[in-house]
Amino acid sequence: TNPRSRGVRITIDPRHGLLVSVPPATRRGWARPEPRIEGFLQERRAWVLRHLDGLARERERVRALGGTRDGSLVLYRGEPHRLGIEDSLP
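and the corresponding structure tokens:
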């Protein structure tokens, strides 16, 4: 729940995937939001699937580059760069 929400909102988060925000249960008409959420997601099914597919492709692309370990490749401004991790603690 999101205390500032006035309705159902969906977000595709790179770390967490699909996030659904709804007003708190104390707000009038939101004690049982499940039917509203289901309807909302069904109406936007194509958008959700398209964006989740894009997120999956991006995650696979990052995995193929080697993730974020020392020596792996990362893209910066469209160019691949080798990552070098150094311990700078005294």
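(Above: one complete record from the training split.) Residues 9 and 21 are 5 Å apart (CA to CA).
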